[in-house]
Write a structure and sequence with these properties.
Serine Threonine Protein Phosphatase 5, Tetratricopeptide repeat; elongated; about 50% helix; single chain; about 375 residues; mainly alpha
Length: about 375
C-alpha cells in the first residue's frame, strides 16, 4: 500500500497487527517504499504514525537514501524536516548526496548541499559525489559540485580521478568541463591507465577532447598499463581512427608490445580495423610479428574472419600461410573453427596446408565438423 501510495488502504492496515515499521523480505519498511516511490501523502501518514526515520533495509539504505536515489526532492525535504540524517551511509558507505549525484538529480544535490551534506565524503571504494557524477555524465551536477570548490583530481582507492571516470564513460562535454577546471590529463591510476587511455578505449571522444587529453609528455603518451597496453594499443583495438592519427602525429612508439607480446598492429588486425592497420603499416609496423603465444597477424585475421584484411594486405605481402602458434594451430585451423568460409577458401586457393594438426591432433576439418560448418567441411 505504501509503495503504491494507497493512503486509504494504508490507514486501515496501520490499525492491524504488524506495526508501522513492518519489514518485508528485503528488510524494507513501508516508509522506505513510500519515499522510494515518491508518495508524499503516504509518507506523511507513516511519519505521523511513528515510522522510524532512519530504519534501513538489508542494503543499509534508509528512506532518505532511497528518495535521493530516485530524485524525489519533496520526499527529502519532508524527511529532513522530521530529522532524518542527511549524512547517513548505506552498506557501501554511500550517502544520499553520492546517490543523488550519481543519478544526476541536480535539484536533490542542491538541497542536500544547502543543508550541510558533505561533498567530500566518499564511499568504501573511495568515490565521492564528483566522481559518481562525472562517471554518469551528469553535467549540471558536476558544475554544481565544482562551484562548491571540490578537489578536481580527487582519487578513489584505485587512484582514479573524476576525469578518468568521465573518459571511461565517453562523456566528451564532461571531460572538456573538467579539463577547463584544471583536471590533470597526465595522472594515471593504479592500473597504469591515463584518462587518454580510457577515452580512446571508449571510442566516443571527439577530436577536440582527444587533442586536449594528449597535451601531455611523450613519456605519458607511451605509458604502458599493468597489461602492457598503451593508449595507441587501446585505440587500435577498438578502431578509434582519430585517436590513432593524433597519437601517431605526436610521435608515440607504435611498436610497443603488451605483456602478451601483442602490438597495436596485432590488435588492429584482430579487431578487423583495416584503416588503423593501414596507418600503422605506413609507419613501418612489421607484418611478420608474432605474440608470445606464437600467433601471427594472419592467425588473428583468420580467427576474426577478416576477409578484406586477408585480400588487401596480408596475403599479398607474402606472409607465412601455415604459421603455427604455440598450440600448433594454423590460420586455416582458426578460420575453419570460426566458420569463416571465404577466408578458409582463400587460404586453400593460396596453398595452405589442408591437413595440419595441432598439439591435440585436431585438423581444420575436425574443427569445422565440431562447429557444424558444413560449407567448410565440403571445402576441406
Amino acid at each position: 500500500a505504501a509503495a503504491g501510495g494507497y493512503t486509504k488502504i494504508l490507514r486501515i492496515l496501520l490499525n492491524c497487527p504488524g506495526g508501522v515499521d513492518h519489514r518485508d523480505n528485503s528488510n524494507s519498511t513501508p516508509l522506505i517504499w513510500a519515499a522510494a516511490n515518491g508518495h508524499e501523502d503516504a509518507l506523511n501518514l507513516l511519519l505521523k504514525s511513528g515510522a522510524g526515520l532512519n530504519s534501513a533495509d538489508s542494503e543499509g539504505k534508509t528512506a532518505i537514501i532511497w528518495a535521493a536515489k530516485a530524485g524525489h526532492t519533496g520526499m527529502i525535504e519532508i524527511l529532513f524536516a522530521k530529522g532524518a540524517d542527511p549524512h547517513i551511509r548505506d552498506n557501501h558507505e554511500r550517502t544520499p548526496l553520492i546517490w543523488a549525484a550519481g543519478r544526476g538529480h541536480t535539484e536533490v544535490v542542491n538541497f542536500l548541499l544547502k543543508n550541510g551534506a558533505d561533498p567530500l565524503s566518499s564511499d568504501k571504494d573511495g568515490l565521492n559525489s564528483l566522481s559518481w557524477a562525472a562517471a554518469g555524465g551528469h553535467f549540471k551536477v558536476v558544475e554544481r559540485l565544482l562551484a562548491n570548490r571540490m578537489a578536481i583530481d580527487s582519487l578513489d582507492k584505485d587512484d582514479r580521478t573524476p576525469l578518468s571516470f568521465a573518459a571511461e564513460g565517453g562523456h566528451e562535454c564532461m571531460m572538456i568541463t573538467l579539463l577547463e577546471h584544471g583536471a590533470d590529463p597526465s595522472c594515471h591510476d593504479s592500473s597504469g591507465r591515463t584518462p587518454l587511455s580510457w577515452a580512446v578505449a571508449s571510442n566516443s571522444a571527439g577530436v577536440r577532447v582527444l587533442n586536449a587529453l594528449s597535451k601531455v609528455s611523450l613519456e605519458t603518451l607511451n605509458m604502458q598499463d599493468k597489461t602492457g597496453r598503451t593508449a595507441l594499443s587501446w585505440a587500435a583495438g577498438v578502431g578509434n581512427i582519430e585517436a590513432v592519427k593524433i597519437l601517431l602525429q605526436k610521435g608515440v612508439n607504435w611498436s610497443l608490445a603488451d605483456n602478451n607480446g601483442r602490438t597495436p598492429l596485432s590488435w588492429a588486425v584482430g579487431s578487423g580495423n583495416l584503416a588503423v592497420m593501414k596507418l600503422l603499416l605506413n609507419c613501418g609496423a612489421n607484418l611478420d610479428c608474432e605474440d608470445d603465444s606464437g600467433r601471427t597477424l594472419l592467425s588473428y585475421a583468420a580467427e576474426g574472419g577478416e576477409e578484406e584484411i586477408f585480400k588487401i594486405r596480408l596475403l599479398d605481402h607474402g606472409v607465412d600461410l601455415d604459421s603455427r602458434d604455440n598450440n600448433l594451430r594454423t590460420p586455416l585451423s582458426w578460420a575453419s573453427g570460426g566458420g569463416y568460409t571465404t577466408v578458409a577458401e582463400t587460404l586453400l586457393k593460396r596453398g595452405a596446408e589442408i591437413d595440419s594438426s595441432d598439439n591435440t591432433g585436431r585438423t581444420p576439418l575436425s574443427y569445422a565438423l565440431e562447429g557444424g560448418f558444413d560449407k567448410i567441411v565440403t571445402l576441406l
